[in-house]
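RECORD TYPE: inverse folding
INPUT: structure tokens
STRUCTURE:
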């Protein structure tokens, strides 16, 4: 890793921690919400986390008017000796004259066997968006960096979006999908495709999601 790249990452870590802590101390009004979902397959950055089987997911979020947020989220998985994933995250997001930004820290934890925790890792993330375009950057000390670009728009209550990501030293992925809501029930249909850096083949997939905010 180049020295300048490490300096940049350390700066992002410091800025992220400072913004999150500052926002946390400034918390005045906030609310807690929940969410549940069923997916035909849990796909993360283009790769299945559940060997193509149905995944049940849910979590709770605290959000404050300042932009500070924190939450927990979980899902059933099937890889590396793990049967359950539990994520903890904290961050700060807001908007300035149409420009949306978000910075935070997320801890991915895995459970279900004596070796499941070997998959645990932490990521710092920063993202920005304007006029439907988005760019995000995530990095940690355990695995490679991930850069993702995206674009989305709405047509008569239907959201259409696409994204392309590069997970360093692992694979590249892209997805396109449509989503909406009927009587308070969210739905999403997404197509995923992957190009592995080592040349191995991975199947593309179509993922169906039904969700509900609580």
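DESIGNED SEQUENCE:
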């Amino acid at each position: 890793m180049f020295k300048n790249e490490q300096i940049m990452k350390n700066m992002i870590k410091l800025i992220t921690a400072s913004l999150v802590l500052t926002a946390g101390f400034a918390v005045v009004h906030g609310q807690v919400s929940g969410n549940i979902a069923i997916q035909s397959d849990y796909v993360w950055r283009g790769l299945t986390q559940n060997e193509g089987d149905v995944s049940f997911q849910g979590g709770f979020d605290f959000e404050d008017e300042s932009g500070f947020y924190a939450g927990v989220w979980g899902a059933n998985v099937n890889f590396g000796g793990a049967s359950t994933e539990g994520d903890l995250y904290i961050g700060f997001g807001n908007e300035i004259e149409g420009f949306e930004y978000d910075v935070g820290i997320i801890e991915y934890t895995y459970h279900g066997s004596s070796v499941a925790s070997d998959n645990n890792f932490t990521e710092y993330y920063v993202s920005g968006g304007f006029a439907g375009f988005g760019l995000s950057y995530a990095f940690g000390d355990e695995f490679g960096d991930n850069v993702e670009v995206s674009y989305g728009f709405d047509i008569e209550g239907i959201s259409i979006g696409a994204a392309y990501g590069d997970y360093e030293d692992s694979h590249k992925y892209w997805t396109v999908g449509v989503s909406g809501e009927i009587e308070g029930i969210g739905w999403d249909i997404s197509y995923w495709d992957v190009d592995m850096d080592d040349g191995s083949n991975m199947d593309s997939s179509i993922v169906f999601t039904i969700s509900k905010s609580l």
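NOTES: The chain is about 10% helix and 65% strand.
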